[in-house]
Each structure stands twice: as structure tokens, then as C-alpha cells.
Specification:
Elements (H helix, E strand, L loop, with lengths): L5 H16 L3 H41 L2 H29 L4 H14 L8 H16 L8 H9 L12 H11 L5 H32 L8 H32 L17 H5 L4 H12 L8 H19 L4 H19 L6 H11 L1 H20 L2 H10 L4
Helix pairs in contact: 1-2, 2-3, 2-5, 2-6, 3-4, 3-5, 8-9, 9-15, 11-12, 12-13, 13-15, 14-15, 15-16
Amino acid sequence: MIFTTYWYLLFAVATVMGFWLLRRAGVRLWFLGAACVVFHYHFAGPAGVLPIIVLMIITFFAGLSRKPWACVAGITACVAALCFYKYSLFLLGELVAPLSHPLAAWLLAGTKTVMPGAPPLGISFFTFEFVHYLYEVKHGGEPIRHPLKFLLFAIFFPSLVAGPIKRYPQFLPSLLEGAQRFSRESLAYGCWRIAQGFAKKIIIADNLTYLIDIYQPQFATLSLWGRWGIFAAIAFRILMDFSGYSDIAIGCARLLGVRLPENFNWPYAARNIQDFWQRWHISLSTWIRDYVYIPLGGSRHGVVRRICNGLLAFALCGLWHGPAWHFVLWGLYHGVGLVICATYRRVPGLGAFFEKVFTKEPNAAWLVTQAYAWFGWLIFFYPVPEALRMAQLLFVP
């Protein structure tokens, strides 16, 4: 991961020191913009930078025009780029090939001639932030008029790789205010969050990964307690890994005076699936809510439409994590969980019973929620047959 490389650590230290050694806020922003360009070029390379430059230009001028058709065209271009770079090979293999192998082979050959070896760095985060920006401008938001400010919103290096997903009405004021003066409190807090993030990632997550790599292939031969131990390790590994990256990103941003949105809020303390998604990857779940679920109609058109909107939104949430069916299934799994969470009280007899149990015994609600979320991680990490086999072995001595 980029955050744990020596290059990143040296770059971050040099950038923070250079940023605050400069006396004027405007000069600091230009320096930070140049540093972000260097960072992006170093890790993405020419093939990864060029598509993002094109999308940045399209998004900037589409927003600047404030014309609805231009914003829609910009959103379409961003989504099309994400589909091409991240999902085209998956779609050709899974959807086109079963219908026509020659057509799929021809399209695959043409795609590979223009596609870089890997998707452009951070293409998912770029797309979601650009779509958010154009959607808000289309609905009356003020566009970013200065190219430097837009550049900093687009490729702000702490959040470029692993988020959190930024919202420009909150990010830009924080950036401009933070660049005005050095704050010892922000410096101390930033260092603390970075240390916390590295502790989560290196001390906890990496060691859990080591254990999982050793014992998960032998899952069937472990004792029942051993299987549950690996099951818990899988759940805590992803929490410590992902929240650790978010802590590092938030801490690095705070060293520059910028407040990024929180991404995790003790998700394993949630007492229902809706509460879980208000605590887990918060910047993604709120983005899905605001720019997929609500535009589809949200809960405004009856129960059936609400269920369909929720399932589609979370199927896309799952697909966002990677081009594979098990990610889609994981998203649908959580979509079903949210549907159950929202509707179980309406089931005659059964709803009242569970409502009474969960009210009387809050820990029961917590246990059901965590079991549901943790079993979902098996679907997230492993092929579906293997995930189901592992789930079954958790209850077989």
C-alpha cells in the first residue's frame, strides 16, 4: 500500500514542512498543488495520469458552464471512464462472451490496445467525487471557478488512494481556512491520527493477515474454536486495515490544516444493519444514499420501489469494490439486510416478537447485527462456494 512506502513517508514530511515554511497562504496552495501533481504522477505514471487529466478538464469546464446538459454529459463521461477502465474486461467476459465468443474476443483485443496495464490510480474515488461535484452544480451549487482550487479538490494527495470521499462544499473552505495559519493543535492531532492508523495497519491488520494466510487454507481441519478465531480475524482485519488507511489520510490532511470527513465510527458497535452502514465507510454509504438511492426515488414511491432502489444501490456499492460477482452478491446481501431491518416490524406477530426481544435485550440486536455483517465478509473475500463452506464449518464440530 502506498501509505506504508518510504517514498510516501519522505514525500509527506517534505510536503508538510515546505507547506508551512512558506509565509503566504496563496503560495502554500500553489506549492501543495505542485506536490499533489508530483505524487499522482509518481504513483500513477503517464498512462494513469492522462485519463484523469482528461476527466478533470471535462468536469471543470462542465461545472463552470453550469448548464444542465453539460453537467449530465460530464457525469456520463466520468461513469463511462470508470466502466471502461475498471469493468470492461469483466463485462466482456461475463456478459458478452456467453453470447458470442468471437465478438467478445474482438472487443477484448481492441480494449487491451488502449487500456493501461492497471486501472488509473484512484479512478473509483475520482469518479465518485466528480459525479458528486457535477450533480451538485447541476442542482444549483456554486462551481469551482479557480483551476488551482479544482486541482486541489481533484488530486488532494492524502485522500487520493483510499478516501475518504470528499464533498467540495466542505473541503474547499477547510482547505482555504487551514492554509491561513499554522496550528499546533492540528499538528498534534494529525500526528496522533497517523500513529493510530499505522498501529491499526501494521501492528494489528498485517499480523491478522499473516495468521489468516496460514490457517484459512486449513479451515476445515481446525477446531471449532480455531475456525471462529479465524472468522473473527477476517472481520477485524478489514476493519483495522481500512480504518487504519482512513486514519492516516485524515491525519496527513490535518497536518496541512484540512479536515477530511470521518470514515468509520465503531461499526462493530452497531445494533442494526442501518446503524452499521452509518458507521462503516461513511463517506461511501452517504454517497450511495445521496447520488444513487435518492435519485432513483428513495423511499418516496411505496415499499416495492423502495426495496428495489435499495437493492440496486447496494449492488452498485458492492460492484464499486471490484469487478467480480461476489462483490455484487455482497452488496445485495447488505441490501437485503437493510430491507429486513426496515420492514421486519411490519410482519404480523413475528415483528412484534423481535421488537420486544431487541428492546428487552439490546445485546441480542447487537449480536444479530454483527453476525450478519461478519458473515458478509466471507462473501466479500472468498468465492461464493468457499464462503458458504466456511460458514457451514462454523457450526460443524
